Amino acid sequence: MAKDKIAYVCSNCGQESAKWIGKCPSCGQWNTFKEIRIANDSGQTAARNAASVVRAGKSNDKNRPMRLQDISSKDEPRIDMCDTELNRVLGGGLVPGSIVLLGGEPGIGKSTLTLQTILNIPDKKILYVSGEESAHQLKMRAERLKPKDENLSEQVLILTETSLENIFTHIKEEQPDLVIIDSIQTISTEDVDSSPGSVTQVRECASALLRFAKSSGTPVILIGHINKEGTLAGPKILEHIVDTVIQFEGDQHYMYRILRSMKNRFGSTSELGIYEMQQNGLRQVSNPSELLLSEDHEGLSGIAISSAIEGVRPFLVETQALVSTAAYGTPQRVATGFDQRRLNMLLAVLEKRVGFKLIQKDVFINIAGGLRVTDMAMDLSIIAAVLSSNVDTPIEQGWCMCGEVGLSGEVRPVNRIEQRIAEAEKLGFSHIIIPKYNLQGINHRKFNIEIIPVRKVEEALRALFG
User: Fold this and answer.
1) What whole-number percentage of the chain has pLDDT above 90?
2) Which 8-state DSSP code applies to residue 4?
3) How far from the centroid of its chain's Cα atoms is residue 12's Cα?
4) Given strand 16-17, what is the order of strands in its sheet?
5) Which of 77, 136, 264, 352 makes a 20 to 30 Å CA pair with 15?
6) Nearest-5° angle of CA 28, CA 8, CA 181?
7) How far apart are CA 282 and CA 280, in angstroms?
8) Neighbouring C-alpha atoms within 13 Å toward the C-beta of 249
9) DSSP string of 112-152?
10) Which residues pair with 363 in a beta bridge?
11) Which string of DSSP letters, residue by residue, matches 185-225?
């Protein structure tokens, strides 16, 4: 028999090397290479187990080459997750045979979201594999998530197991329609001589589950941990193996949670799902503006409302700014929920093109509700909030705005302007500032809100502050 192979793998990014290296050439971290022993038949038994499950399951046909013109282009029927927010992030539902990776900070609600979702799916046999919690803990959580007048689903099977070979044995016996792995870092295969959660274990287990999902048509949801940098733990190849990567974000001290798609082979990556954490589980937030707008900010300076779009959903975002004299020699520029470099660019435009000197001022920006917004239409509200705080003059109630700001101080057009205007009108706003170029093709008569077109930043500030 051939001897086992020794390899060195970076614990931060998964880079492999034949010898130990002090600094990783891929991620640049020091002293992250760990020695691992790889068996000669590493991954072979797991692959055979996955293949045996497929042969005993739904798919027995061998793959054969097909002409491109003979392949059907119709979308496969997706599995309804009975959760509007999750369906939107997935692109319309769960695709049969897909493998989804759900990541997030500890205690953020990953297991709660998954268990709550599968309890509401009817007529589907679901196998929930837990390597972190006992069956008793899962039963207590399920009873808390389910209303008292409803019985728990008989189609949900709970398995507490960490061995990949045993998991495939139970899958072969039960033939579930959906498999949940909580979490992939706790699963290990006997073929790899390393502890669960190591680079090799995560890679081999995920590859075997991928082979099973693609061959049998059974979707698999993996729950993963994240590291201290906020990225998914394990090798980067884990994100390449799966079809969809979903990040569950939010602060544990606040009630709102945001479900964001980082990668999706079957849908858009710009969709957001918003939840509110309650005592009996997660509540779907169908109107995001309710958490992004405070109830009353009359008479408060440094607050501007912007009409933003993430994915296909328009919502109004409250931008908060605080400008104060720098207490130290170097002024601070701090942004929460907004791009730090873009903030610096907007402050330079405000100083160069409008004439307001902020070089000796501290500037703090915060997006209310804990949301991270990447829409360029936020530029105009950022500048308006900074100027409002600088001169300590509040913006009148009922005003909102949208527009991208260029380096010359011009207000550039934004996409889907009619949806932004309609959302502002629906929430009771009386005035909205938009780029002048966006006036083309808009029917003014169908809107009751007053539309104020501007071409430069000075015109917008003049309309707001007179």
Assistant:
1) 40
2) P
3) 21
4) 16-17, 5-10, 33-38, 192-193
5) 264
6) 90
7) 7
8) 18
9) HHHHHHHHT-TT--EEEEESSS-HHHHHHHHHHHS-TTSPP
10) 323, 333
11) GG-B-TTEES-TTSHHHHHHHHHHHHHHHHHH---EEEEE-
Can you tell me the distance from the alpha carbon of 389 to that of 383, in angstroms, rounded to the nearest whole number? 10
pLDDT at 61: 52
Residue with tokens 């282009």: 73
Q: Which of 327, 320, 326, 325 has its CA nearest to residue 343?
A: 320
CA proximity to 205, closest of 217, 225, 190: 190
Q: Which ranges of 247-375 does DSSP label H, i.e. alpha helix?
A: 289-292, 340-349
Q: What is the pLDDT of residues 183-193, one digit of tens each?
A: 898 999 988 77
Lowest mean pLDDT among 22-26, 286-290, 341-345: 286-290
Confidence of residue 1 (pLDDT cuts 50, 70, 90): very low
Selection from 220, 163, 226, 218 nearest residue 189 by Cα: 163
Which residue in this structure is represented by tokens 């260029």? Answer: 406
3-state secondary structure of 380: helix
- Are the beta carbons of 43 and 189 closer than 8 angstroms? yes
Residue 65 has, within 13 A of its CA and on its CB side, a CA count of 1
Q: Is the pLDDT of residue 158 over 90?
A: yes
In the structure encoding, which two tokens stand for residue 186, read together?
A: 């706790």
Report how far residue 247's alpha carbon sits from residue 249's, in angstroms, rounded to the nearest whole number: 6
Rounded to whole angstroms, the Cα distance separating 300 from 396 reads: 10
Non-local (6+) Cβ contacts of 250 within 8 A are: 108, 109, 256, 257, 258, 277, 370
Contacts of 396 (CB under 8 A, 6+ apart): 464
* Contact residues for 202 (Cβ-Cβ < 8 A; gap 6+): 184, 185, 234, 235, 238
- Residue in the structure block whose two tokens are 């931060």: 12
For residue 70, report the phi and psi dihedrals to the nearest 5 degrees. -90, -10
- DSSP H helical segments within 217-333, as ranges? 237-241, 289-292
